[in-house]
Amino acid sequence: MTRDLVIPAELLPADGRFGAGPSKVPAEALAALAASGPRLLGTSHRQEPVKALVGGVQEKLAQLYALPEGYRVVLGLGGASAFWDVATFSLVRERSAHGVFGEFGGKFAAASAAAPWLAEPFVGRGEPGTVAWPDHDERYDPDLVDVFAYPHNETSTGVMVPQVLRGPEHALTVVDGTSAAGGLWVDPADVDVYYFSPQKGLASDGGLWFALMSPAALARVEEIAASGRFIPAFLDLSVAVENSAKRQTLNTPAIATLFLVDAQLDRMLAQGGLAGMVSRTNRNAAAIYDWAEEREWATPFVANPALRSAVVATVDLATEGDLAVDAGRVSAVLRANGVVDVDPYRKLGRNQLRVACFPAVETDDLRALTRSVDWVVEQLRSGA
């Protein structure tokens, strides 16, 4: 039976975690967290030890991204899902425009469309595996747009925009960097808000959001806060900005998550900063895409190589004829052997493997994953 197949130990990766989020957390970071003892965990987040941790994360993110003068690192609770609602309350003045080419870009567009205080957003839509910019909506009028939003990387499909671009000069450019942060190149001067969660490229747990914010974005937050618009405190970006300046959050953060983010930022800065991490993810992704292109029964899902994500690689497996391979069975065997979370995004519904290539993932482990998949496919084809 499928679950009884035992992959030879010499083929297996040293670390079999390839999930696109939650992602691999390095064992040394977990050991350091345990060694921190009572210094942080179980202590007040309003006191200096935790505030120093928050401040350190802010400073290291500013260093990693070489933030321009006047930009600030703001953080809050709830992850990127909460930030979509935060943005509808505190960043969109009247009307937004969204690029939607996967699940996560669509969620921000849906939040804007559902907000009764906002006009119907413009939505440029693209099929999974492609990129669509906000101005691809045939109704698009740049004069009516005050937020221009799209994902840097679409986690659900393995597509990335080849270059982060600004929208209209008078609009805020708001970019979802959730699965891109730390692994894809971006110049913060090209965006007004670059937001992300830490459970992907930053090798931590979820539950927090971070936003790199320009002076224009900070001014917009102040403007809307002063307008009299009702905003729940938890979703009020002005409250998050104020608390972030004090190196804290509105209510209790997950301190362990902050600790793991801090540890990953230390590793990133020590290994070449953002440029070093981009080089690493490009190498990681190549290990998957090159392998897929060499197999008759595997194909990179994203047809255009320039749009293939360097942080989340998606590979279709053949569905017809003698070359057909059941990705679900492959994934089941891998999981039974400790190689986990290579399933496709559930709503995409493809016969596919989805593999995280984040900076914390070792290239040698990705190569071992491909050897393991080859072995599993061979066994399945032999009738095992």
UniProtKB/TrEMBL annotation:
Keywords: Amino-acid biosynthesis, Aminotransferase, Cytoplasm, Pyridoxal phosphate, Pyridoxine biosynthesis, Serine biosynthesis, Transferase. Its EC number is 2.6.1.52. Residues 145-315 form the Aminotransferase class V domain. It comes from the Bacteria. GO terms for molecular function: O-phospho-L-serine:2-oxoglutarate aminotransferase activity. Transmembrane segments: none annotated. It catalyses: O-phospho-L-serine + 2-oxoglutarate = 3-phosphooxypyruvate + L-glutamate; 4-(phosphooxy)-L-threonine + 2-oxoglutarate = (R)-3-hydroxy-2-oxo-4-phosphooxybutanoate + L-glutamate. Gene3D superfamilies: Aspartate Aminotransferase, domain 1, Type I PLP-dependent aspartate aminotransferase-like (Major domain). Pathway: Amino-acid biosynthesis; L-serine biosynthesis; L-serine from 3-phospho-D-glycerate: step 2/3. Its cofactor is pyridoxal 5'-phosphate. Pfam families: Aminotran_5. NCBIfam families: serC_3. PANTHER family: ALANINE--GLYOXYLATE AMINOTRANSFERASE, AMINOTRANSFERASE CLASS V. Catalyzes the reversible conversion of 3-phosphohydroxypyruvate to phosphoserine and of 3-hydroxy-2-oxo-4-phosphonooxybutanoate to phosphohydroxythreonine. Belongs to the class-V pyridoxal-phosphate-dependent aminotransferase family. SerC subfamily. This is phosphoserine transaminase. It comes from Nocardioides imazamoxiresistens. The lineage of its organism: Bacteria, Bacillati, Actinomycetota, Actinomycetes, Propionibacteriales.
